[in-house]
Specification:
This protein folds into 2 domains: 74 residues, no CATH class; 109 residues, Vaccinia Virus protein VP39 (Rossmann fold), CATH 3.40.50.150. It has a 7-stranded mixed β-sheet, with helices on both faces. It contains 8 helices and 7 strands; from the N terminus they run H-H-E-H-E-H-E-H-E-H-E-H-E-H-E. By secondary structure, the chain is α/β, with parallel strands linked by helices.
Amino acid sequence: MSDAQRRSYDTLFPRYAVPFGQEPADFPQLFGNDNPLIVEIGFGMGIATALIAQAHPRRNYLGIEVHRPGIGRLLWEIENRRIENIRIIEHDAVEVLEKMIQDCSIEGFHLFFPDPWQKKRHHKRRLVTRPFTDLLAVKLRPSGYIYMVTDWADYGDWALAELSATPGLINRYEGFAPPQLWRPETKFERKGLNKNHQTYELFFTSGQGEYLYRETPDLSG
């Protein structure tokens, strides 16, 4: 951790962190409002998380991460950008969803560039696989969404198959989705694009309703 990340972690974590617990969390109380809740699993350094939350103050964002330097960086962004609609849980995402998130309560899940576990013997460690995708589907509100982005072609094909086979989810596009203009490009993504990596995006919803970001500003610029 850098000095700034460590300082932010030590001073801001108590304010913006939600302790892991064995019972469903009262997120309206934690945020002070009942705005729609978006969950990002594995936010890395948190830059995209901060930009999206800052651009959409009427939505709440819960970041789940175990990498402390990334948590420290996101806390630094929260403080410097004066963001009030982000909370963080430092714990395993599966346990958080199972214990702390009520069914039919989440407006959207963001999974931006999860670890692809390239070697075949490690594919079982991939996050976007059943039965985890079934768990995500159960937690979604009607017309809620799952938005995944990867720059690993094999993982993109894998995730497309797993999400397509998950009961209750509907692919909003035929195959991969076009870039969602409200998602800012990350530093990690830029490095990949500079190396001619292709980005694969997936956008699935529950039910037939309109998804949340259709009318939101373009964050790509």
